[in-house]
Amino acid sequence: MPEVRNCKRCKKIFMYVLGPQICDECKKREEEDYEKVRRFVKDYPGATIQEVSAATEVPTTLIYRFLREGRLEVSDESPITLQCENCGVRIRSGRFCIECSKRLARDMLNAGRSLNDVLRSEVSRDKDNVGLRYLHGERKDK
Ligand SMILES: [Zn+2]
Ligand SMILES: [Zn+2]
Q1: Of 115, 24, 132, 117, which is closest to residue 9 (Cα–Cα)?
Q2: pTM, rounded to two decimals
Q3: Which ligand neighbours the alpha carbon of 102 most closely?
């Protein structure tokens, strides 16, 4: 369902539907930025992120985001790297290295299972409390 939001980039109010919280104008601008960066790293695979940012006038934070989103790929010899948010190892795109992604997926499964256990015990505790609540209610009535 569309709703009114503030664009994260230009703070303008726009109708938000899906995806990143930016307006159409900024989306278009970001596409252009992405194209500039993509072309530059292809032409200059040895450039650092500061050099790319200076040449394309695209902020480094945005370049990092393109990398994290997996849209932008850099060559193996590129000094531009991301770090796994979990173990800090060098990665080329995304948020986690392959090992951590695997482990996190497994952890999430385990967490899901224990969350279900928690929910189940909450429900049974509520059932136990029904009698107690009824008793309190009766006492108040008298
Ligand atoms: Zn905008
Ligand atoms: Zn890792």
Answers
A1: 24
A2: 0.63
A3: 2
